[in-house]
Amino acid sequence: MDLLYLSKRIYLGTEENFINGGIIVSEDGIIRKVMRTPQEVNSYLYNTESQAVFDFENMVLMPGLIDVNVHINEPGRKDWEGFSNATKAAAAGGFTTIIDRPTNAVPPTTTMAGLKAKTSTARGKIFVDVGFWGGLIPDNSQELSSLLSAGVMGLQCSLAHTAEPVNKEFPAITTQQLHDILCKLDDDILIAVHAESALQQPIAANENEPKCYESFLRTRPSQMEINAVQAITELALKHKKKHFHLLNLSSNEVLSLIKDCKDKGAQLTAETCPHYLSLAAEDIEDCRTEFKTQPPIRSKTNQPALWEAIRTGCLDVIASDHSPATAGPKCLTYGRTRGNFLNAWPGISSLQLGLSIIWTHCQRYGLGMQHIYKSMCENPALLCGLERFKGKIAEGYDADFCIWNPDEEFQVSPDILQSSNKSTPYTNQRLRGVVHATVVRGFHVYQQYESFGQPLGKILLRKTSKKIVKFVRI
């Protein structure tokens, strides 16, 4: 039996305004038809019997959000974040698809064995659809073709060392190593890069004040991002038939490099994160290590240019870089180590809050619903080769919907968060935009104030015959 979803504010994304209409969804979760007027809906209901109808009235009904940058640490570190809790957090935030980073789990997704461990662990636990990045490290070149053929969304690497113990499991790669590997890989691949490079002369931390945020911030200046983006843009111009994606950028000083590279015809896309758009270094109090991430949160003056880059399309994607950890690694346990920014694990937990964070702040910078749709629905689908069935409301697409009230506010508290670990820099903040329901392929996976049902998410594998994507600027 077909399902009918109604709303007076359906946002298709393909046009500027809302429509007051309905969406017919088949039993197998595919959009059968979009009705654009109340008259068309009434006519359909008059002529159709036994129709299951879900009327969301004045709620915004838009395509399900897609987050391409999520750390799910299972197997190996399920206590940091596992598949069940991560996908519940995604669903509660309006996300219907997430893409798992290859780091932090044991084993990492750098081998076929690692990918199989991920997929076998995920099955039967996920509440939204999940895809995977494959990892690219110095000694796994023999695994890359197999990972790509098996359906990872692309290959992800880092140009800078991360914190231990993950650094031993997922070491950084040099620009020369990356170039050599690129020469051996097919043209139609996607390479995602954590874009920080070590400084020739590292800046020492202020060991005398380890609980002060500035002691950490000074060790990772914008120049680390500038160096990395410069290197990647040069590679992108040498390898124009390969697609490069810059992950979780924080510094506005790299934007001119990105724009210039795109203007010269390279296949380059870039993302930033809600925390870089909404949090500021000068507001971070001593010992608040839940704010620590890499690249670091920078000053308020850094933010307007990032918002403008989203508006113009220089930055293509907004993604969470969701990376929670237990209280010990985050230095949040009571004792002498509490609040030590120099030792704390770098990662922010915010997957569930992404839509609300962006909506709370975007309008003061001249952005609106169309920019959320572009950067959190359409462009992420294009990036991961999902654009033929996800990322928009249209006939033949998966019935993935985010239903939310953009006018309603809420206060962030641990009891509303679905993530395994509740520490987040947004605790006690008041945000605007409340998700009321999330639908994945026609299944109601999340309904506000109700318990979760069965985990009905699917594992997504990328077709290897993908074409290079083109992003259209707004």
From TrEMBL:
Its cofactor is Zn(2+). It is an enzyme of class 3 (hydrolase). Keywords: Hydrolase, Metal-binding, Zinc. Its EC number is 3.5.2.5. InterPro entries: Allantoinase (IPR017593), Amidohydro-rel (IPR006680), DHOase/Allantoinase_Hydrolase (IPR050138), Metal-dep_hydrolase_composite (IPR011059), Metal_Hydrolase (IPR032466). Pathway: Nitrogen metabolism; (S)-allantoin degradation; allantoate from (S)-allantoin: step 1/1. It comes from the Eukaryota. One of its GO terms (biological process) is purine nucleobase catabolic process. Residues 60-442 form the Amidohydrolase-related domain. One of its GO terms (cellular component) is cytoplasm. Belongs to the metallo-dependent hydrolases superfamily. Allantoinase family. PANTHER family: ALLANTOINASE. Homotetramer. NCBIfam families: allantoinase. This is allantoinase. It comes from Glossina pallidipes.
